[in-house]
Amino acid sequence: MLATPWICRNCLLRLRNPLVRQQIRLQSTASTSEAIPLALLTRARTVASEHKELTKKLANGFDTRAAKKSGEYSPIVNALQDWDKANESVAELTTLIHESTTDPELRSLAADDLSETRTQLANASQSLITSLVPVHPFAHLPCLLEIRPGAGGLEAAIFAGDLFRMYQAFCNRNGLRTNLLKYENINGTTEAGIPLSEAILEVENVNSYGIFRCEAGVHRVQRVPATENKGRTHTSAVSVRVLPSLQENSAAEENFDDPESDYYIDVKEVKVEVMRASGAGGQHVNKTESAVRLTHLPTNTVVSMQDSRSQHKNKEKAWALLRSRIAQSRREKREEEVANMRRSVIGVAKMGRGDKVRTYNWGQQRVTDHRSGTTVHDLDDVMEGGPTLEQVMESVRNWLMERDVETLIAEEGEKK
Amino acid sequence: MPRITTSLLRKARTIDPFLPALLGPCRDLYAAQNELRWLHEHVEKVAKARRAKGDTLAEEALLRQLVVERASGKPLQYILGTEYFGDLEIRCRPGVLIPRSDTAASVTHIVGLLRKAHNLPPELRVLDLCTGTGCIPLLFQHELYSTRNDIDLRVLGVDVSHKALRLASYNLQKVRNTRQYVDKGRVRFLKADILLDPFADQTRGPLPLKTALNLKGQPPFWDILVSNPPYVSPSACWKTTTRSVRGFEPKLALVPPPSKPSQPDMVQGDEFYPRLLSIAQDVEAKIVLLEVADLEQALRVARCARDLDIFDGIEIWRDQPDSSPDDITDEDGFPVLGQGNARSVICWRGTGALWLGKVTAATSKGDDVQ
To answer: Mutate which of A197, A286, A292, A315 to disrupt the B interface (most B C-beta within 10 Å)?
Structure first.
């Protein structure tokens, strides 16, 4: 007989399979501060061995190129040495503590030391990462966030408005200065509270492109829309584009006249069209059209602006927008070429447009990022632009960084 | 004018109930949407100003009233009170001609040429006849001082209308308050009638230009003469002007007064140009820029200038004179630059050719003129 009183079978089963199952994603990419991605470590080791060879070569005779390369590598090698040392001491201390033969006094001393060495290790890995990871060439720039509804009709437009408010709140919370360049709801007016048809938000702080770069792509929403009266869940999509911005302060830093720059546009290649009244013109009409349309002929990129009554201001805005679009497309093209070359090596999902990057699910109150594989459950906090959103963005940035490093390694491999 | 289709009206109505009314003057859905947005912004601005004073305002009612006014054809610039002229926001009031963006394009282009010149005189004198809102003197000053600081600019705007002069002074005040070059350059306005003959018997009313210049202590010689005179002939006024121009803008600024009874229509439209050219001769202007209605009038004015035989070169500029250098065509021996309708006639002589960078053009043109 059983020692316990009778228990119903259902309850026993319930005990075995808890009602609320914790969903755990066992993803190896979620990196902590001390852990260094394997890819990075491999690269650091290669660099170190190369550096050793270079030093040997330099000992025999001077070579300018080798000296320069060795100079470039030395911060990485130093960081790797620091990290190795810290790592070793941590391992040593841990074994010391866990070994049964150690006497208690030594063990307590080791425990004291351990925490300090751990922080050293964290610092070392941080510096190793920063010395290794290539910085995105536009990361220091302010950025433009363009939000447009995709598939899903009115619901997509409503969610576009939600996303727009989310980013605005995120900027407010983090003290980022923003400037609304364009806001148009589906009626073609600027009134808020009506589903959005297009919004362009400029984040003026430096490094904003680095922060928001991870947000570009298709954001998917799954919920019962306000417009639905039968209670069915819909899936809609909103596209977010992130472009480095060049307006005002940052414009001075980039050289527009330098043909090497991504932002260089030959004025001859742009067709400027100004809306003019048909017919006599001059004193015969008092037109109010101030629309300006710029067409970049080689790429067929068209930008039109009609927000302001001043044709002059419209023209300035249109030029700024055209410059950023061209620069972005040039960079994308370059990246595309590089990616095509070694898609087989890396097998990274394409990150530009096309694939969805994140899902907001109202039914399960969850937000999942499909690139880093992070899932968070505080949907409300995400939509208010709170720390949970920051957490998701952080994870994507780490993911991006790892991809960058993998690309770098593949590049090195190809060169050999 | 083709009727607005019912489907367009219906489409406009689904977007906003005010839009169908605006389609009347705008004729085009996008233009109507833009105008409605600007009216919205204007009403919000007014309401904000009122609230700051502790007043309240029925925004909806005001917007409705403005839309009704606009639907009757009243120019949007009179309703909102301003118009952009190049980079500047110029105040407009009924009774004074609204600045046109075509004029701004010509003025910007000529200043763009002058800015590159190395041998401008230390004091550059610019005379603007028929100044209206004062937009040309203000834009001239703004554009020149945006890159050049070594020149003392002196601009005089002349108009016959008291209303226009008051508005021009107001605009000058406003531009001074918002820009940095407060004490740089001198802009003045003067009341005079340029059609009056200085040697005829004096009557009551505005003085002839020469007398007024003498009386106000203004110099008798000027380097550049710019003018956007009335140039619409009476028949063109009925046929080609839009309803909002015909019904709301001053006739004084559009149609020259008849000098003789029963004169041909075309002659009345060209009334001002012979006077302007002879004034240019009197004040020894090196560069003359005159706005015209179309290519036919431009050619008539250019021929008139050629017959005077004092200018080294004559060109005709279109609406966008700066578009590209290969847009030059030739009409009756006059080069025509740019794209759009023919908009202005420019003549130069002496050092004016150097200021405009036309030296080579002037030498090659010299043969044609003779």
So the answer is: A286
